[in-house]
Amino acid sequence: xxxxxxxxxxxxxxxxxxxxxxxxxxxxxxxxxxxxxxxxxxxxxxxxxxxxxxxxxxxxxxxxxxxxxxxxxxxxxxxxxxxxxxxxxxxxxxxxxxxxxxxxxxxxxxxxxxxxxxxxxxxxxxxxxxxxxxxxxxxxxxxxxxxxxxxxxxxxxxxxxxxxxxxxxxxxxxxxxxxxxxxxxxxxxxxxxxxxxxxxxxxxxxxxxxxxxxxxxxxxxxxxxxxxxxxxxxxxxxxxxxxxxxxxxxxxxxxxxxxxxxxxxxxxxxxxxxxxxxxxxxxxxxxxxxxxxxxxxxxxxxxxxxxxxxxxxxxxxxxxxxxxxxxxxxxxxxxxxxxxxxxxxxxxxxxxxxxxxxxxxxxxxxxxxxxxxxxxxxxxxxxxxxxxxxxxxxxxxxxxxxxxxxxxxxxxxxxxxxxxxxxxxxxxxxxxxxxxxxxxxxxxxxxxxxxxxxxxxxxxxxxxxxxxxxxxxxxxxxxxxxxxxxxxxxxxxxxxxxxxxxxxxxxxxxxxxxxxxxxxxxxxxxxxxxxxxxxxxxxxxxxxxxxxxxxxxxxxxxxxxxxxxxxxxxxxxxxxxxxxxxxxxxxxxxxxxxxxxxxxxxxxxxxxxxxxxxxxxxxxxxxxxxxxxxxxxxxxxxxxxxxxxxxxxxxxxxxxxxxxxxxxxxxxxxxxxxxxxxxxxxxxxxxxxxxxxxxxxxxxxxxxxxxxxxxxxxxxxxxxxxxxxxxxxxxxxxxxxxxxxxxxxxxxxxxxxxxxxxxxxxxxxxxxxxxxxxxxxxxxxxxxxxxxxxxxxxxxxxxxxxxxxxxxxxxxxxxxxxxxxxxxxxxxxxxxxxxxxxxxxxxxxxxxxxxxxxxxxxxxxxxxxxxxxxxxx
Length: 873
Fold this sequence. Notes:
By secondary structure, the protein is an alpha+beta fold. The protein contains 25 helices and 22 strands. Helix 12 runs antiparallel to helix 13 and helix 15 (481-516) crosses helix 23. The longest helix is centred in the N-terminal third of the chain and has 40 residues, at 2-41. The radius of gyration is 39 Å and the shape is globular. The relative contact order is 0.10.
C-alpha cells in the first residue's frame, strides 16, 4: 500500500514536470520564431536566420536542464540525502555524539523540570469558573483590647448582609471526624459549608449532584459529597456509590456526589475527604467566608467597600468597636514572593541551559577541525555554502532531538525529587505534572538549542581555506587563529556563567545554614508529636463540634500514667499547641494592674512535663504540679509586667476583667523560645496553663531505635480503643515544614542543584575540549621536543594557553556576581550579597577544578615519545 502511494506521488510529480516543460518549450519556440523573423527581415537567408536566432537566444539544452532542476522536486531528494549523511556522521562519531547528547540533555532536563513547575503553577488555567473573581476574607483586630467586653454585631446587620460587591457568598469550616465504615475507624478530613459552596466555586460533581438548600435545613436526610480520592479508597470507585450510607462520628450520611480528580479546596491545608452541608449558624465562629466578586469589581475595591461597612457598623453599634478590619485576597493567588522565587530559579536554569549550549558548541567547534578536509573536498566539488550550513544544522538538530527525549526522561525523575523538597503550602503543588505544554516546550527548546549550538560551528566551517586544507594531503589540519579565539571565548563565557551560579548557590547555602543554626530555645531532637482524634457519641457532626472535655481529661491522665511506666519513654506530656504550628492567643487580666490595653499573650495548655520534654529551661520557679491550677510565663512577659519585681506569686485571670473566673497564681518563669517563626526577632509574651482539653501528645524516648508509633498505639489500645491516632510527626520535621524554613530550603536545594549541574557541565566540557585540542597538537609537541624544548617548557606553554580563557572567564564571573547577586538580597539571612568568603570559595573551586581539567590531558600530551609524535597524522 505504501509503495503504491509512493509510486502515485512520483507519477504526479513527473506529470507536472512534463506539463511545465511543454509550456516552456512552446514559449522558447515562439521566441526563436520571432528572432528568426527579425533576421529574415534584415536580409538573411532562412538557414542563416535560424542559426543566428539560436546563437542570440543561448543554449537550449542547458536551458532544459536548468528548467528540469527548477521544476522538479530535487530538494526533497537533497534533504533525504543530507539527513542520511547526518545520521551516518553522527553514528561514525558516536563518542562525540554521546557526550553532546548527555551534556545538552542535562541542561534541557533542568529547564524542562523548572518549566513544568512554572506551567503548573502560573500558566495552566485553574479548573474553576472565572477563578480571578474568587476571594477569601479574614476579619482581624488591629489592636486587641484588654479589660473590655466586645459585643458581636447583631445577625442580619453584619458586613456579609450589607455588601454589594459579591455575586454570591458562602462559608465553610475545615475539620476532622471519624469514619466508622472501614474495618478499623479512621480519621478523615471534613469540610462543613453552607449549601451554595460548590455554586460559588463554579464546580459541579463528576458523579451525582451538589448541595441543595434543604440539605442544610434538616428537611431531608443528611448528605455528603466525597472527594475523588475518597471515592477510590473507601467506595472502591463504584459508580453506584451514590446514595450509599457512610457513618461519620454518630451521624449517618448519604453520598450524593463525587467531585472531580482535580478539585481541591480549601487550598493550603490537608486535602478534604468529604464536604457536608451545614447552616451558617452551626459553623464554628460562623465559618470562613468565601465570595465571588461581581464583574468589574477588583480585590482592592472589594476590600475598601467591606472596610467602609465595618466602620459604619462600629458607628451604629459602639459596643462592638474594636478597630476591626477585613483582608481580601484572591483564592488562587500565587503570591508575589512565590512568583519571584520561580523567576529567580527560572533564570538559574536558563543559565544552565545556556552553559550546556555553549559547551556543545565548543565541542562541535573543536571537533570540526577533523572535518576541514572533508568540507574542503565537498566545497571544491561544487557544494554551496548554504548546503554545507544546512548539513551542519541537520546534524545539530539530530543531536538536539535526541537530547530532548533524554531531557523528558530525566525531567520525570527531577519532578519526583522536586516534589519531595517543595514546601507543603506551595500553591498548586499537587498539580505539578508533565502535560502537552511541556512536550511542546521541549520540542521548541530542542530546535532552538540545536540552532544555538550548531549555527556558530556551521558558519565557521562552511567556508574552508581550500589551499591550506588540501595541500598537506593526509596530514592533520591545524586550528586557525579565528576559530581558536572563538573557542576560547566560548570557554570563558561558560566559566563566567558557572562562577555566577556557584556564587549565588554559595550565598543561598550560607544563608540557609545561618537559618537552621538559629537557637530555638528548646530541644526538638527525639521529640515526636502525636495528634489524637476523639470520637463524640453525643455531639452533632454537622456542626463540627466533637470535643468531649471529660473524655479527654480522663484519656490524658491514663495515657501519661501508662507512658511514665514505660521503660522506653524518657518524658511525655500533652499540649494544645505544638511549637511552630501556629499559636493561640488569650486575653488576661493581671491583679493590681490598671485595665488598659495590653499585648495579648500566646497561650498553651500543658501538662507538667511539657518543659522537661522539650528541654525548656526555667529561669525561676517550678512547673505546675499534677492537677494544680497554676500558670507559668516566659521571661518576656515577666519583664513586661514586673520589670522591677518578681513575678512568682503574682495572680492573673484568664479572660476579661468582668468575667467571673478565679485568680490563678504564677509559679514559674521559663526562658523564651521560638514558638511562631524561627526568624522572629522580637519575643512575644507567653503563658502556660494547666491542661483542660489537650489533644496532642509530645513524647521523647530514651533510644532512637525505639518505635514511638508502636509504643503510643499500645498505650492507646490499653487506655481507650475508640481514640484514633490522627497524625504522627517528629519535631524536626515539624520545624522543617514551617514556611520560614521550608521555603529557603526549597530555594537553596534547587539553586545548588542547578549550580552543581552547571559546574559538572563545565568540567566535562573543558576536559573534553582540552583533551581534544591536546590530541591535535601531538605532532607539534613532538617537533618542539625534538628541537630541544623540555617537557616542562612545553607543558607550561600549553597550560598558559589553556588557562588564559579560564582566568578571563573567572574575572567576568566575579564581576557579574558582584552585579547580579544583589537580586538575592531579600532571600539572604545575615549574609551580605558580596560576602568575600563566598566569592573566594567559589572562584577558588572553579580555578582549582578547571586547572586540573586542563592539566590532565596536557600532561598526557607532553608525555608522548617524540618519534611516535612525529609519525602522528
